[in-house]
Amino acid sequence: MTDEKVLAVFLSHSVSDLHGLEPKHFNDIARAQLELRREPARAADLGSLATCFRLVDDPQEADIHLLPLTWNWYVGSSRVQMVGEAVEQGKRWGKPIVLFSTCDYTAKVPFSGLTIFQPCAYRSRRFENGNRVFAMPAFIPDFVQLYCGGQLPLRQKGPRPVVGFCGLAGGKWYQLAYRWMKLQAHRAAFR
Fold this sequence. Notes:
Helix content is 33%, strand content 13%. The chain is α/β, with parallel strands linked by helices. Strands 2-1-3-4-5-6 form a 6-stranded parallel β-sheet, with helices on both faces. The longest helix is centred in the last third of the chain and has 18 residues, at 173-190. The model has no long low-confidence stretch (mean pLDDT 85).
């Protein structure tokens, strides 16, 4: 590794009592660091999530306090109070508190003083409620590597063209009429 700083990360609450959770509920940093603790040999697979962050057990030693689960999980499982407790703990230690949200809508977090990363964020709302909100791109694996073994299979053109379609292309006449009337009502209300 070069002269890049490795961020010391403290998980703001224990995940041992949340042992049966699916990995999708953890944010990427927490998931990677917990996997590294179990299997250090996986560091190469985890890339920068393994080399740019280091999990610490002492909150004073940490650069950031990280909520290990996504905001969606806390809300969906009625455990928002865990976030409140973690925010208070982070403020006591004087550490930045980081929260990830994975929804397609802007998270409404009732606490202040957090740094929030989410896929959708409005510039006009980036300092909302005393929080700093940052847009986070969607990261996906290389599908050619994942599903095709690194080789892109090219299809041969046939004598007759094939057209693909993804969308709404039909329905019963009364469903279409209902959608059309609803659209007209929206347009009239807009005017």
